[in-house]
Amino acid sequence: MASLSPSLHLPCNSRTGFVGKSQGIRLRVIPASRVGFVRKTVECKESRIGKKPIEVPSNVTLTLEQQFVKAKGPLGELSLNYPTEVKVVKEESGKLRVFKTVETKRANQMHGLFRTLTDNIIVGVSKGFDKRLQLVGVGYRATVEGKDLVMNLGFSHPVRMAVPEGLQVKVEENTKIIVSGYNKSEIGQFAATIKKWRPPEPYKGKGIRYQDEIVRRKEGKAGKKK
Length: 226
Prior knowledge:
With 226 residues, the protein is of the alpha+beta class. 15% of the residues lie in helices and 28% in strands. The protein has helices at 105-126, 184-196; strands at 61-65, 68-72, 77-81, 86-90, 96-100, 129-136, 141-145, 148-152, 159-162, 167-172, 176-181, 207-210. A hairpin with a 4-residue loop joins strand 2 (68-72) and strand 3 (77-81). The relative contact order is 0.11.
């Protein structure tokens, strides 16, 4: 049997930097002090929503105090505290603009968010918001008794819910519930609590759904083929 070449068994000599005499490959060692790092500046794009101006109706009174905004209108009064990453400025035209105070990723996120929240409180105190729900199912009904919303949802007893302060609830055709008010977050929260009592099931679609909600249906088990 032929023997292996001696050059294949020669270890790397750390002192000379050669790997075998026959190969003649030099390994170059670079000191750690000479290794450089390239720093790349990450530029945050300006939010398309955040840079839009906010229209202020004539029937809304605004109070601006540094990072605090209060809006008062015919439907109520709302306020908003801003984080340090953004600020709100009122222009000579009467419109509001939200600006970033620093160039960071969080500031870019807060820019669009607080522009939307500011617009919500202005629209809320001037025009208001509403959320509509639909009851789907045999015997499902809803009524308003005083300050309570009463629903028959197939349980052994009716479901009674107290309407929060600042919200109005109206029922149309016994199956359509309309929640309205000037605080958009409270409207959405109360509507979600109503829906939680009987979420729509995917087979027959029975339950409480939003008016514009699309319920994905599933095919039930097919009977045994003869």
